[in-house]
Amino acid sequence: MIRKFFSRVFGRKLPGRAGEPAVIPHARHGIRREAISSGSRRVVETLQDGGYEAFIVGGAVRDLLAGIRPKDFDVATDATPEQVRQCFRRARIIGRRFQIVHVMMGAETIEVTTFRGHHVQRDGPRAQTDDQGRVLRDNVFGSRKEDAARRDFTVNALYYDPVTETVIDYHQGLADLGRKTLRMIGDPATRYREDPVRMLRAVRLAAKLDFSIDADTLQPIGELADLVENIPLSRLFDEMLKLLTSGHSLECLRQLRAEGLHRGLLPFLDVTVEEPQGRRFVTLALESTDRRVREGRPISPGFLFATLLWNEVLNQWDALKAGGERPIPALYQAMDEVLDAQAEKLAITRRIVGDIKDIWALQPRFELRSGKRPYGLLEQPRFKAGLDFLLMRAESGEVDAALGQWWQDFLDADGETRAAMLLQRAPDAEKKRRRHKRKSIPATEAASVEFPSSAESSESAACP
Ligand code: ATP
Ligand code: MG
After folding, report:
1. Nearest to 334, CA basis, from 358, 310, 308
2. Is 216 a catalytic residue?
3. Which of 203, 234, 265 corresponds to the end of one domain?
């Protein structure tokens, strides 16, 4: 009965008992050759002209079949990385855990992967694993069939040949696509142990595709969630960034929490989303990020992580101020403490940490609306991101909405109006400010931060 259904819907050859793949013609899968990027098509054609097998694989085929525009087009081939490199003028081999070739075609960079074999082979090389079964290095090449078996989900193991316009399907991926189901190839628990990132991928891809996770695929996640702790920090960061910028970050985080997968990732998120104020802020930030991604507008990872961690900065900052620390040094200390604690769980790249700090450090400066300060702030390279952050704080109710409005008006105003908008400084505050200025500030701090004077920082009661 099922085999009959397959032959009618998906093509002549079935994913048969002998392990033969289904070969699905264009009439059944409907992928248009033109939907494939010209660069990746040329890479496939060049490799096939060189006598090798080559296909578009993975997410691109899945997305096209699901009616989503793919982010990128990866190619898989039976040529070794060295053979691939020799087929192209502009190509280089990269990677350690997985060696891949980057082929440059005009403005496109195409990732070309050699078919991978089984991790464990009776004779021949073995993939290295750690004591939990996690695969450390895996450059064992294999056949197309083996390559399909070591991909994660059935819908990710489809091979499209743009020359013959056929899709090759070993694991009934097309049927799972039709059922909108994410199903792990092989034994799910073993596959998660080999690579715990697959648990995060299950959550992310289900949210992105609006698929459900097959019951057997979902079941072991709760039990194995702690293995996320074994993922190398840089890989974890890449995956979290993909998740947060998937256009479905709210849904992803909801699902991560439901599966107990969030604990190792963003240590403060739990506390943050349990406080109504924090939840409102994080929700606003994620909604805005999802909206931007869906509209195809750029998003800034620094801004995103700054929002996710802000509530914790506020908590630490308050605690330090309550302990007698002056507001600005207290803010800097709180920032460092939060980022240090985060770094143990998730290696946010140095550049992004720099962006996060810039955005946070600007926040108290928005309180200063007298004299030359507002003009100086407008000139800051991260002013726009800082202001967007402030507006989000205002929207969540953490700071006075009038403060955000003042800055928006100030930004739009002409010179005369701006001058009229400036707040007046109290005369005794001015004296204090001069006295304070004469105190020496350590050179490094003075270069990186403009410390507002104590008089100015008390200018607005809304200062957090
Ligand atoms: P997207 O690009 O939308 O994030 P993707 O599935 O294309 O999703 P990539 O990281 O680009 O994700 O991976 C490309 C392909 O490589 C996948 O479709 C899958 O076949 C395979 N793959 C990726 N990560 C894993 C993994 N951890 N385990 C097994 N196979 C994987
Ligand atoms: Mg991809």
Report:
1. 310
2. no
3. 265
